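User: structure tokens for this one?
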Amino acid sequence: MRRISLFATACSTLAVLGTAGCAHQVVISGTTVLATEDNVALLEVIEQYRGRLVEKNVEGLLVLASDKYFEDSGTPRADDDYGYDGLKTVLRKRLTRLRTLRYDIQYRNARITGDRAEVEVFITGAFELTAQAGDSYRRVSDYHRFVLERTANRKWKFLSGM
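Assistant:
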């Protein structure tokens, strides 16, 4: 419910900005991200990602990824890097092991350069994994960066960070 109201408030804010001509910068409610049309669209796509991740909807997640998707896994090794096809495998493997998942995103900043965007977030969550040795429960709390591209049809797709 909070997510829906976040975007309704952002859209209202954009409408007011268009008519009021305010001199100060307005942020999307509940975030530190400037309230622009592009930023609202970016956050909507990331919220779709969050929702589909919680639902464990692999096909829905893949629709949000660019065919140019690439993940370097944050390590200097090349053997754990993967592209779009690898993303399919990773999502299927990891999401089938998930028993429960809570995944919240705090939006901190969005930068758009041409048709490329970087969105800085702080993620908090918890998940329970099934394993042969017994289920395990873990908490996550960390900064993260999503990188997206605007496609020819003006849709945002993930390049990395899923």
